[in-house]
Structures are given as C-alpha cells and as structure tokens.
Amino acid sequence: MHALKEARHLIEKAPLDESAKILASLVLALEKEVDFAISDLYTLSRDHFDLALRILKEWRLDRYYGGKARLFDTAVHVAELTKNS
After folding, report:
1. Which of the residues 24, 27, 51, 53 could staple to 78 if both were Cys, CB 3.0 to 4.6 A apart?
2. What are the tens digits of pLDDT across the range 25-59?
3. Inter-axis angle of helices 18-32 and 46-59, to 10 degrees?
4. How many beta carbons lie within 10 A of that of residue 44, not counting itself?
5. How far apart, in whole angstroms, are the C-alpha atoms of residue 25 and residue 29?
6. Three state DSSP letters for the chain
7. CB-based contacts of 77: which residues, under 8 Å, 6+ apart?
8. What residues have CB less than 8 Å from 36, skipping those under 6 apart?
9. Beta-carbon neighbour count of residue 37 at 10 Å?
C-alpha cells in the first residue's frame, strides 16, 4: 500500500487520534508549503514515524497526485474537527 493511501486510511479511521492529527498537519504543511515542526514527528510511534517519512518521499512524485488530493481533503477535515473540539 502506498504511504499516502495508508495515511488517509489511518486518519479517516481515527481523526482525533494524536498520530492522525500530526500526520494530517504534515500533509497540510506540505500542500500549503508552510512550516511544520519536525519535532512533532518524534512523538509518533516508530511505525507512524516511518509512515511520515514515506509520505515525504511519495509527496515528491507527480504520479501520486490523485492520492495527494484525497489525503489533503482528509487532512483538512481533521484540522476542522480539531478546531471544533
């Protein structure tokens, strides 16, 4: 499974989970080309940290554009949930 798709599933499954929030924030920062606190990645479990690194690798590849769009939509949804909770 590609990292972008895996991240989308993880975020959709538990959008208020701290790992999901961090991964969603990473996605939003990548899409908007804004700063992201790298130190947040170190709070992730090893598996989720590895997932974040794979997201960074895949993000650079144009062929994953469709996956990026769906993952970005999911990340925006989590950001909205976080604001309201």
Report:
1. 24
2. 999 999 888 999 999 999 999 999 999 999 998 88
3. 20
4. 17
5. 6
6. CCHHHHHHHHHHHCCCCHHHHHHHHHHHHHHHCCCCCHHHHHHCCHHHHHHHHHHHHHHCCHHHHHHHHHHHHHHHHHHHHHHHC
7. 15
8. 25, 26, 29, 30
9. 12
Tokens of 47: 């598996």
Banded model confidence at residue 64, pLDDT cuts 50, 70, 90: low
Give which of 66, 60, 51 is closest to 3, Cα–Cα. 51
Average pLDDT across the chain, whole number: 88
